[in-house]
S-adenosyl-L-methionine-dependent tRNA 4-demethylwyosine synthase
Amino acid sequence: MAFGIPLLVLCSAINVFSGGKLGYYLIILAAFLAIKSQEASKTKNSRLDAPQSSVNSKDVLNSKESPIYAVDFTSTTFTPTESTTIPKAVPLRSRAKRSPKVIKAAKPIPNNLAEASLTKSSVNLLQSQVYIFYTTLTGSSQRVAQALHTKLTNLDGLANPPKMLSLDDDVDDLEEFFLKTPKNGDTKSIYLLVLPSYETDSPIDYFLEHLSETYNDFRVDKYPLRSLLGFAVLGLGDSESWNGEKFCYQAKLADRWLGKLGGRRLFPLGEVCMKFEGEPKAQDWIQSFATLLADDEPFYLDNDDDIDDSDREDEEVDDADTLVDVEDMGNIIRKSGTTSIGMSEAKKMVAKDSPTYKSLTKQGYTIVGSHSGVKICRWTKSALRGRGSCYKFAFYGIKSHLCMETTPSLACSNKCVFCWRHGTNPVAKLNWRWELDPPEKVFEGALAGHYQKIKQMRGVPGIQNDRFQEAFQVKHCALSLVGEPIFYPHINEFVDLLHKQHISSFLVCNAQHPDNLAKLAKVTQLYVSIDAPTRTDLKKVDRPLNSDFWERLMACLDILRTTQSHQRTVFRLTLVKGFNMNDIASYADMVIQAQPSQIEVKGATFCGSSNGNGNPLTMQNIPFYEECKLFVVSLVEELNSRGHSYEVAAEHAHSCCILIAHTKFKINGKWHTHIDYPKFFQLLESGEEFNDLDYVKETPEWAVWGSEEAGFNPDDTRYDRKAEKLRKKLEREDLSRKIQASK
Ligand SMILES: Cc1cc2nc3c(=O)[nH]c(=O)nc-3n(C[C@H](O)[C@H](O)[C@H](O)COP(=O)(O)O)c2cc1C
Ligand code: SF4
C-alpha cells in the first residue's frame, strides 16, 4: 500500500511524457491507493494510540470528577483519547451506482466516537459574531427572530452586536453563508436559525435544497460549516394540524443538514407550536440559549445521534456505491427515527392552502393546476371598455382584449427588486422540483381561468359588447406574467398547443437558463429580460439565485445570436433609476453580442412599498418618460457610433415604453414592427424555415416615434382617471348643494 505516493509521482511523469490516457488512468489508480494507504495508517495509529483499558461513557458520567477533555472546540480534526473506542463501521447501501465522490475536507467532528464524552470549549462563545437567520411567510418567525436579536443585543458580555438577516431578502446568495462563511478577522461566527415549516412549497424548500446540494456536490468542501463556532435552530410550527413527524419537520431537516455540513450543534433544536405554546415557549428557548452563551460548561458530545453514516462507509466500501443523495435522505432520516418527510417528495409549487396561493389569488391571479397562473391585465379591461390597449398594440398590433397573460411556471430563479412577490414566490435554481402538470391541463386551465375572468366583467360600466364577445376567442398569449415560463419542462408542447389554436406566443425569459433557451421551439416573439448591463448591477437588480448568473446571461446572449437567430428576438429593458440606467456602453455591448431584432425599453412601475414585501424600491426609483427617452436616444447613438444599425421606431408614452428596432424593419422608409399573424401561422404550418422579417406588417403612423399621438390609438377614447375622479367629485358636491338648498 505504501507505494501509492511514489507510484503517483511516476505516473504523473508518464502522463507528461506520453501525453496519453494511460498515464491519466494510472494517476487515478495511484491516487486511490495513496488515499487508502493514508487512511489505513491513520486507523492503525489511532488504534495503537488508544489505551488498552478504555473508560466507557457511563463511567465518565458517573464518576465524581468528570474527566473533561480539553478539545479545541473549533478544531477540524479530532484525536481519540482515553474515553474513545473505535466502532466498526456499518456499511450503508445506497440505491444505485453513482459517480465517484471526492472528499476534500477532514472530518470536523469525532465521527469515530462510539460513546459519549465531554469536551471543553477552548473558545469563549461571547467573543463570537452571532448571525440570526430567519425566513417567514406570515410573520411569526420574523417576530421570534427579532425577540432573539433583542435578547442577545442586551446580553452582558457579548462582544459583537448580533446581526439579523432574512434568508429571502437579505441573503442574495446562500453560498456566501452556507458554503463560505463570513470572515471577521479572528472572530468566529455562530448561526442561529428561526425557521417555520411548510408542508406546501415555500422558500424553506429552496434553502434546504441548497444545504443538501452543497453536501452532495463533490466539487466543493464537504464540511464548509466546520469553520463556524456553532449553530442552533429554533423551529416554529403547528402541532395540531401537523402533528407527529410533520411538526416542525423543516427545522429538523435544517438542524440535521447543518450538522452534516460540519456545523457544531450548540443547543438542542427548539420546536415551538405557535398555535398552543406560541411566543412564550419561543422566549424560553431564547432565554436558555442566551444563558448558554455566557456559560463555559463543557459540551457533551454523543455521536450516536448523528445520522451521517455515509461518511463512515467511504472507508469500507467501493466509492462509487457510497454517494447518498437527496432521495436517500428520507430513508436515512426514517432510519434515524426522526421525521420521515424526505426532501425528495415532490410538492405542489403552489398548493391550495399555501400562503402563496392566498397571496396570488388575492391579487387576482387564477392558479391553474399547481404551478401555472393566469390573470387579466388592466389593459385587457381597458380595451374591453374602449379605453385603449397596451403598448403591444402600438408596437406589434396586439389588441389587449384578445390577449391572455399567463405563465406555466410561477417559480423563478431570481428575486428581482421590482417583483412584488418576495418572500412568498417559489424559487429554484436549475431543476424543476415540483409536481408537474401536463401541458394540456395548463393550456385548458389557463383559457378557462381567463374566460371566467372576462365573463365577470360583463356588468362593468362601459364594456363594449362587440369587444366583450370577441374576447372569448383569445388570439395572443403573453407568457410573461410572473415566474419563468421556460422553466416548465413542457414549454414547447404548451407553445405548440397555443399555435394549433392560432394563438400567437410572446415568451419572456429571464436569461438564466441557457439550456432551456437553446431548446426552445419557434415562438412568435422571443424576449430576453436584460435587467442590468454589468455583473454588479445585475446582482443588485435581479438578486439571482445562481452564482454564475452573469455567465448564464452571456450564454443566453450568444444563443440569441446563433441557435435562436431564426426567432424574432427582443431585449426587454426595465429601467430602474439608481439601479440600471447609467452604463449605456455596456448595454450596447450586450446588443452587439446578441443582435436582437428589437429592444423594448420600459420605465419600471411602482408595485408597492418597500417595507411590506421586501421590495426596496420607492417612487424615487421610477423614471419619468423624459428620462426614458433620453436613455433610448443615447443607446441608439452608441450603437450607431459602433456601426450597428438600430433606430428608435415606436413609442407608447402612456405606459412609458419605447421600441428600438434594427433598421432592417424599416422597409422603403416605413417602420414594419407590427406582426402579420396569419402569415406567421401559415409559415409555421408550411414546415419551412423562416425568420423575423418574413411576417412583418407596417407600423401605424400614430405609433411611430415622435408622432403626435405618441402611441395612443386615435380610435380609442382617452380616459384620464384623475380628471374623471375630479368630475365625479364636483358632481357629488353640486348634488349635495342642491339638496341643502331644497331643505
Ligand atoms: C399552508 C401551511 C402549511 C404548514 N405546514 C406545516 C407543517 O408541515 N408542519 C408544521 O409544523 N407547521 C406547519 N404550518 C404551520 C406554520 O409553520 C406556522 O404557522 C408558523 O408559525 C408559520 O411561520 P411564519 O409566520 O414565520 O411563516 C403550516 C402552515 C401553513 C399555513
Ligand atoms: S424574473 Fe420576473 S417573476 Fe422572477 S423575480 Fe424577476 S420579476 Fe419576479
